[in-house]
Amino acid sequence: MKKIIALLALAASFVQPAAAQQDPKAGKILDQMSAKYQAMKAFKASFTQTLENQTAKVKENMSGDILVSGTKFRLKVNGQEVINDGKTMWAYMKSENEVNISEYDPSDDQEINPSQIYSLYKKGYKYTYAGTTKEGGVTCDVIELSPEDHNNQVYKVRLNVSQADKSVKSWKMFKKNGNRYTFAIKKFEPNVPVDATTFTFDKAKYKGVKVIDLR
């Protein structure tokens, strides 16, 4: 289960208004980026994730894909799968053929779940414009977010937003324990089809799965 929680470090990885003054230039870019994603019924992205911790001399890479519709998402990475319908979360571990079911309460979650990346800045975060960078030949604006809650184990999130189409090209999460998580989008598909079964766990498709209901 700890591995599943680490994945949701896409975290706290795409919402009370911020009390402090915000950078208007950064805010305009974030609003344009957010509007782009919220206009889509659903989107799918393939990504790479890199975990680095210089003190522990750790560097790990993995790849995965995610399907998002509003606050719902379906994440697959490294033999693990997390499905969230906005109310219930299923965390499936293929190696153990086991699924943990829990109620999902975003107010209890300091980790950035995958559906938040385009709206994270709207609640509880300060944001500043941090210049530009090139990513895959694309010029990006760099926006840095910092949580107002000092107990949050994440102290900074850095977003690279394409100047051309306001899409998120990558983001990096900095945690107090020294871990740095970088997520880079490799392929993006807007407005993919979804239905009522997309964001639920169908036990029949996982033969012999052990179900642990934590609700």
From TrEMBL:
This is Outer membrane lipoprotein carrier protein LolA. Residues 1-20 form the signal peptide. Transmembrane segments: none annotated. It comes from the Bacteria. The keyword Lipoprotein applies. The keyword Signal applies. Keywords: Lipoprotein, Signal. Pfam families: LolA.
